[in-house]
Amino acid sequence: MIEFHRVSKHYARNAAALSDIDLRIDKGELVFLSGPSGAGKSTLLRMIAAMERPTSGTVTVNGQDIGKLKPSGLPWLRRNLGLIFQPHSLLTDRSVLANVMLPLMVTGTPRADAEKRARAALDKVGLLGHAASEPLALSGGEQQRVAIARAIVNRPQIILADEPTANLDRASANRVMSALKAFHGVGVTCLIATHDESMLRDAPRVIYLERGRLVDFPAEEMNAEVTA
Ligand SMILES: Nc1ncnc2c1ncn2[C@@H]1O[C@H](COP(=O)(O)OP(=O)(O)OP(=O)(O)O)[C@@H](O)[C@H]1O
């Protein structure tokens, strides 16, 4: 479970990137995070991963106050998280398979086991046939699915994806989103930030941010309701 309690974030000399956020995301939920550019979506995601600290308030992940996490606690947190952030930073001089094996190799998983699990992860995103390719030989959407495979190879409980369909054509975007939804289908908590309104249709839960604050509806809808 992820909880934000009265969380604000001020970057030096900037207006608040997040203001007084109260939020609870239960285990296994699929939640979309929407709102205009600069609304604070990335900041919110980065806080869950302890890549940013709140200026005030608390963020807890599975009961652990992230603000109080010592550096020695970071591996615990990151093991529970699959991060799909832009840019996806695939290593271009290694094969797709090697890229997906990397998170397992750095935590000391034996090579044969790592390879087996990486192949299973690639299979889940429909790219097993590209295991031996170099990332640059793949399309943008395929590269993004490799990044998803790399993020889930450690079997995280929570996936955080920041604009996973940015710069993709509709068909590739749909495939990326289907891959993410499949993980939600097996009980993984998924939090996905997106500008892409079409992804929000049929979404079980959408959280809108505007200028660092949670709003119940996007402004256009509120205006439409007011003028209706
Ligand atoms: N490292 C940083 N230093 C200073 N200001 C920052 C930093 N990161 C974000 N900001 C500012 O905080 C605010 C929120 O940014 P954030 O990237 O979280 O928004 P976003 O909703 O993810 O935007 P986008 O959709 O464009 O990615 C913006 O005003 C941004 O300029």
From TrEMBL:
Keywords: ATP-binding, Cell membrane, Membrane, Nucleotide-binding, Transport. The keyword Electron transport does not apply. SMART domains: AAA. It comes from the Bacteria. Residues 2-227 form the ABC transporter domain. Pfam families: ABC_tran (PF00005). This is GMP synthase.
